[in-house]
Design goal:
4 strands, alpha+beta, globular, about 25% strand
Length: about 90
């Protein structure tokens, strides 16, 4: 399976590359559409501190070391391609 289009409601360049998250819309070549949250690990710690808790859960995030278009797109391609799309079924 291949990615046909990646859309960013908020540009990654507007985010803190070390501590932030961004929504990403992905359209596959067969027309299926997915929404993912891509975040840095530091952002999860910030969210916990901000909420005053020592845990975090919710929809699974895709983690990248730095929030850049290149890292995001590389991670999304891996989600779609690795292990026959297994991760797409888990995250999507």
């Amino acid at each position: 399976m291949r990615i046909n289009q990646i859309e960013y409601p908020t540009s990654p360049e507007e985010c803190n590359p070390e501590n932030d998250n961004v929504d990403v819309f992905v359209t596959l070549e067969d027309g299926r559409k997915y929404t993912f949250v891509v975040a840095t690990p530091n952002n999860v710690f910030w969210c916990m501190d901000n909420e005053g808790v020592d845990y975090h859960f919710g929809d699974p995030m895709i983690f990248v070391k730095r929030l850049t278009r290149e890292n995001i797109e590389r991670a999304l391609q891996a989600i779609v391609e690795e292990e026959g799309g297994r991760w797409l079924n888990i995250y999507g």
